From TrEMBL, chains A, B, C, D:
The chain crosses the membrane at residues 12-29, 49-73, 80-104, 116-137, 165-194. Pfam families: TMEM175. It is found in: Membrane. This is TMEM175 family protein. Belongs to the TMEM175 family. The keyword Transmembrane applies.
């Protein structure tokens, strides 16, 4: 993996992967065929729920990824590798959504719980890779562009980590209620869409650039 | 979701989702196998019809989306969220086209009607999300670039809403004739491709920029 | 569909569709499973042949499309619509390749002939939509940028049409030999990759810009 | 295929194909359904391994391709054709990963060996097409931009070829241990991600541009 001087192509490649993963989700929603369209449409509700929630989640992941990279001026090999791990997790979400679609119908509570636990596990993995990426960026700060207040950015690490604790909790909750767990994942995505930790900027950096960041 | 200062990346991401959704449509067209290629090819006509009509529809959706965003200079979190909902509807169209392909063959008129009603429901949902996006853009107008006559743009809201009434009508028509409903969706796409409400511009804004807009 | 002042976004959208269609081809190549991997791998040779030939064809289609659009400065609604039809044909090629993969194994010569005739029919459709697009561009020439010699470009229409005659011939040849027809489609793609009609330029247009064009 | 003066669009098209191929990998990972989610999840481990390893490999292929093309200023028809062959190999990797997923479970060592041999064969094919592309670029060097030391770049050909010998060796190793072979492919991807042959630059070319290259 190359030391790329501009981060633009890495972000374009990542954007492509996010856009494809979010669009592939629909392939995990079964198309009814054969007699009984009405009954089949109703019966597939878990796949609609998994589609909607996972679509929101990938959309927010993209927005957060985009915000962070808008402050990245240089990409080194470690960042490229961590980014690849992050994309590997996101690209697998259509599979995780398919798993939820297969087992959420309540036929077996134990199996639905396992499906949601695996699904929640992907969110834990995303939080870990995103946290590792943020940790690497703030370690020396030399990959950021000049606007970022590196010292303050380093100070956000703990809040990042604390925010991520919610995902292991949801993993545990899967064994109490699979449906509730999926709903909370959706609500959490909407919440993080509207409330994010800001990337701390130096005094005097252009107003209006106070781009909020990620979880 | 971040307040992104330039709308370019949001549009690029959206363009990617449209391009992928339009290309995934072909996966819902069954490839014949086994003896009797001729008979099978004829028998799958509903999937060809669903492919052609939905391809045109997504193509026009993309063009309209592109036109509106060419006047957007700033993206806030609400716009980002409404755009994500709009993309969620568009990304589901391969599934809706697959549903039509499965049930339009006339074996059961009632089931074909339901399939077309669901398909029309997606067009209603698209009109609603697009309308909400247009409503948000014209509310204060501060997300538009300087060329747009915000007052006049706000005045187009009613015509937008009236134009969208056609989709619930087609939903109702599904129960009269599923084939006719699909054909009308196709004709409507071509019509809106060539006849769109213009985005009203300020006096003195560059000629030739009178980009028409959307439904 | 909007009158877009710059052709860049239309080309970016089209490039996306070509890139996705070419990559989706692999989904039509069956992955063996169950006992007898060796026998299965050999048995699927028609799908490999269809993959390789269609990959080359879409690649050349993209390159030709790209060359023509590099001379397009403005996009009107008719051009947008013709381009959408062209993309509709290209996006369907994974299906056509799947059809060839299903029937080329020689179990039934008549069915293989039909499969290749349908495949060739898509090439005829591509030549027709590309020809219509070229005809529209050269009609007035006002969509071209200043480098193009419109009068001379209009003169190439006949050579375009003559070059396209080869595809109906291959459609006919399908009924003589399906395998030979597929091989000739592949050879033709390579030939047109290296030998194309040039877009005629005005005297004094920059040297080295004598981009060859399409079939 | 056109002589394109700027290499940007070729790289954008290639980036799209890499991004799609890497995201399609997940479609080859079977989603469990029916009773026994736990047992099924464990049973599908070969598809997870194939996903992770192939994701890393395509990611590194993209990074290497990107690095080389960042030094390419002009694209001729031969380069375009060699690039198309390279993309044809990469686009087929989801199929090769699916093959490994089907046969690595150890039910039959002979069949797993064949699957890994075919998989390794794709890596050989990639090394050959990449090598051919590098050979063509360094032959005259006139396609490179001014920073590249063409003479020294030509001198790297042998090291390129030597580095590629590892892939035929892994092909042979497939018949000893399929699992070990897959693991080594993964390790090799990580290794080449962090250790690459540099593209030799002229004296005085900007510091920090010593982009390493490929295997």
């Amino acid at each position: 993996m190359a030391r790329l001087n501009d981060s633009g192509r890495v972000e374009a490649f990542s954007d492509g992967v996010f856009a494809i993963a979010i669009t592939l989700l629909i392939l995990e929603v079964k198309v009814p065929s054969g007699p009984g369209i009405g009954r089949q449409l109703l019966h597939h509700w878990p796949s609609y729920a998994a589609y909607v929630v996972t679509f929101l989640i990938i959309g927010i992941m993209w927005a957060n990824h985009h915000t962070v990279f808008s402050y990245v001026a240089r990409v080194d090999r470690v960042l490229l590798f961590l980014n690849l791990l992050l994309l590997m997790v996101c690209s697998a979400l259509p599979w995780a959504a398919g798993l939820v679609a297969s087992y959420l119908d309540g036929a077996d509570h134990g199996e639905a719980a396992i499906a949601l636990a695996v699904y929640s596990g992907f969110m834990v993995a995303h939080a870990l890779t995103f946290g590792a990426l943020w940790w690497w960026l703030t370690r020396t700060g030399h990959l950021f562009d000049a606007r970022v207040d590196v010292e303050a950015a380093r100070g956000t690490r703990l809040r990042f980590a604390l925010g991520s604790v919610v995902y292991p909790l949801l993993l545990g909750l899967s064994f109490v209620s699979a449906v509730l767990t999926l709903a909370l994942h959706g609500l959490l995505a909407v919440y993080y869409g509207f409330n994010q930790l800001p990337v701390p900027l130096r005094d005097g950096a252009e107003e209006g650039d106070d781009e909020p960041v990620v979880l």
